[in-house]
């Protein structure tokens, strides 16, 4: 891996860390919009406990995934690649299962303004993509990254 990380990765890491902490604190505080969304749905249909559990797991996993991002950005080795590969797989699964609230919000944007909905999807995709790329690189390409 190059001895020096480019500054955009470092800036991205700190932005991601801030967002991850805010999301995780909202989960712990129990008063976020997402939390309220699930609690209201659970009152009407208990099966939403499953989706709420997926959401909790997703937020927790995303917070945990700040570790491989940090390790990638600052060129550190920690644990075996299998751990990071497993976490990456869990992250992908929870990406699809743990975002019911966000999917409903974007769906509602399509009813109100399709340009806003499309813009939201593109923005979220571009915001999250570097973290997934870094995690993938760190998990599956460590030998290449740390080759001297």
Summary keywords:
single chain, 8 helices, 148 residues, mainly alpha
Strand and helix layout:
Elements: H1 7-29, H2 33-44, H3 48-64, H4 66-73, H5 81-97, H6 100-112, H7 114-140, H8 142-145
Structure, explained:
The chain is mainly alpha-helical and about 150 residues long. It has one domain (about 5-145). Helix content is about 80%, strand content about 0%. It has 8 helices and no strands. The longest helix has 27 residues, at about 115-140. The chain is globular.
> How confident overall, as mean pLDDT?
87
Shape: globular
> Which range best describes the helical content: under 10%, 10-25%, 25-40%, 40-55%, 55-70% or over 70%?
over 70%
* Number of extended strands: 0
Poorly predicted runs are none
Terminal-residue CA separation: 7 Å
Summed up, the domain count is 1
Based on secondary structure, the structural category is mainly alpha
For the largest beta-sheet, the strand count, sense and barrel status come to: none
Please give a quick description of this structure.
By secondary structure, the protein is an all-alpha fold.
């Amino acid at each position: 891996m190059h001895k020096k990380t480019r500054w955009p990765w470092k800036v991205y890491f700190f932005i991601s860390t801030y967002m991850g902490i805010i999301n995780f604190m909202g989960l712990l505080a129990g008063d976020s919009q997402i939390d309220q969304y699930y609690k209201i749905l659970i009152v009407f249909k208990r099966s939403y406990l499953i989706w709420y559990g997926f959401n909790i797991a997703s937020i927790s996993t995303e917070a945990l995934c700040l570790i491989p991002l940090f390790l990638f950005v600052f060129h550190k080795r920690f644990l075996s690649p299998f751990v990071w590969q497993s976490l990456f797989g869990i992250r992908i699964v929870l990406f699809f299962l743990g975002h019911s609230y966000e999917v409903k919000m974007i769906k509602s944007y399509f009813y109100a303004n399709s340009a806003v909905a499309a813009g939201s999807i593109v923005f979220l995709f571009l915001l999250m993509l570097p973290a997934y790329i870094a995690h993938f690189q760190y998990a599956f390409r460590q030998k290449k990254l740390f080759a001297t």
